[in-house]
Amino acid sequence: MEVFILEGLTELWLLIKYLVLGLIQGFTEPIPISSSGHLVILQKLFGIEIEGLSFEILVNFGSLIAVLVIYWKDIIRLIQNGLNYLLTKNPENKADFQFILYLIIATIPTGILGLLFEDYISSKLSTVAVVGITLLITGAALWIIRNLRGRKSEGDLKVKDAIIVGLAQAVALIPGISRSGATIVAAMLVGMKVETALRFSFLLYIPVSLGITVMSLGDIVGDDNIDALAIPYVLAFAASIIATYYSLRWFMNIMARGNLKYFSFYCFVVGILVILFL
């Protein structure tokens, strides 16, 4: 009897740990404090060693679903106006067509560097020590742009703006460098308005996350942990969807009020604590 109780408690604790991992990943994905860095920290604290990338891919896909739900009107508008411009050359639709092109251009650096350095990043840079240092870098970058208010809207963007933001997203492949933080910092440094920087950052997340998910389907299917951890994985996946949705809504309001400095403080504090104690 005691054995069954212990086994039940162990399974319950496992579910709780993966639920927390999914919630934290989902909550931290949209905000500029690095979801991948927090996953590394939590795995260390919980004593979980997640082999392979299946878990991270699944929870990131959950975040993607939440982003699609929030930005679906923008996505439909861009597709409709982009196709309309291709067919009719209507100048009213040119800005949206160019916006799509810039998103494609900004995706390329992440795709190339991800293919080239994925194994190195996973094996060498996914450590608590690296995350501590990169969180400090993220905090410093957020502090630099905390008061910036650009003037560029979608129709004012140039190819170089897309390349700069794309390179920033590629750097965020390193755990502890926030993807949303890096892209928003870069977008605001090139002069984008807050709302334009937000929209570009999270629409840019869609092709990258979708591409990673599709390319990793084979890894997920072949993951030895899938059968044993199916329920914890599904729980974390659902948690990431819900947490990302509400976190992104909250972050959009934070950005509108210009309170990025608080995320900078958070990254400094957590980065220092990680370096000192983990």
What value does the Rg take, in angstroms?
19 Å
Shape from CA axes? globular
Low-confidence stretches: none
The whole-number mean of residue pLDDT values reads: 87
- Measure the end-to-end span: 38 Å
SSE pattern: HHHHHHHHHHH
Class by SSE composition: mainly alpha
Overview of this protein structure:
Belongs to the UppP family. Pfam families: BacA (PF02673). Catalyzes the dephosphorylation of undecaprenyl diphosphate (UPP). Confers resistance to bacitracin. Its EC number is 3.6.1.27. The chain crosses the membrane at residues 12-32, 53-72, 99-118, 125-145, 202-222, 228-248, 260-277. The chain has 278 residues and is mainly α. The chain has one domain (2-277). The chain contains eleven helices and no strands. It has helices spanning 2-28, 35-46, 54-88, 94-125, 128-144, 159-171, 179-189, 194-215, 217-221, 230-257, 261-277. α5 (128-144) runs antiparallel to α11 (261-277). The longest helix is centred in the first third of the chain and has 35 residues, at 54-88.
Chart the SSEs and their pairings:
Elements: H1 2-28, H2 35-46, H3 54-88, H4 94-125, H5 128-144, H6 159-171, H7 179-189, H8 194-215, H9 217-221, H10 230-257, H11 261-277
Helix pairs in contact: 1-2, 1-10, 2-5, 3-4, 3-8, 3-10, 4-6, 4-8, 5-11, 6-7, 7-8
